[in-house]
Amino acid sequence: MSTASRRHFLSITAGGSLALAATPLLWRHARANEEIRIGALCELSGVASTIGVPQSEGIKMAVDEINKTGGILGKGPGIGGRPLKLIVEDTESKVQTGVTKAKKLVERDKVDALTGVIFSAISLSVQEYVNKDAKVPFLNAGSGNPALSEPPACGKYSFQGSPNSRILSLPSLYAAKKFGPKWFLIGDDYTWGRLTVDLTKQAIKLGSTLEVVGEEFPPLGTTNYAPYITKAIAAKPDVIGLVVFGAGYARILKQITIRPTSRRCPSRKRSWSRAARPSASRR
Fold first, then answer.
1. Tell me: the pLDDT tens digits for 134-175?
2. Where in the chain is the domain with CATH 3.40.50.2300?
3. From 228's CA, which of 35, 53, 67, 188 has a CA 20 to 30 Å away?
4. Predicted TM-score of the model (pTM)
């Protein structure tokens, strides 16, 4: 999935989560003729802003549409005549800031539901808060850690709106069968990157042999991937598997395509994509 298409996907996912959050079963503070308040926690700054900003825009689009058309119930404006009010807060891509903003939205702004978030570490902390204390629905619209929907992190007030990394790693098995079992894996050096590299291996082993010819974990936010790409190409893998976040994914794909090699370089980032064949084509 390209960076642009991932942004589009997250915008759609965010809108779907917002629509669910606005359904009557999840209202808490809303009464007749009162607005329904939705709090959106988005990474508007920091390392995750390349995805957090499009996510927030998708949520805003959903609110506008629901307020104009009535959304899934078709009784506008808003839900059954009750307008939605969206309050967006910036997590700054930081766990503590995310939790602080969640508490502000619930305790001061009195929102009826929370949505948003990209980083799973932020989501896990927000889920703990809503399930134990706030007890308002939190519809996650972008985090991929499977732990979010599994005990002990899951709860009656938390929902995961997009497929998790375990599900999105499964196409790696198809790639192994089509291109070969020798893999070189490059993943961001933080929880999601290392977890998803492991999930990719697990997915391949479901129906194929796997030979890992190398692994590298660049720091999150790396701009120069040349040393890692050089090692990967020197290992002569059948597949280079990429588990790289946000803007880094676009950077590493561009740097791979200018390398002097004709090897195929399928890659993945949460969902499956395939890099252009270096030097042979740049589609």
1. 999 999 999 999 999 999 999 999 999 889 999 999 999 999
2. 3-162, 167-274
3. 53
4. 0.78
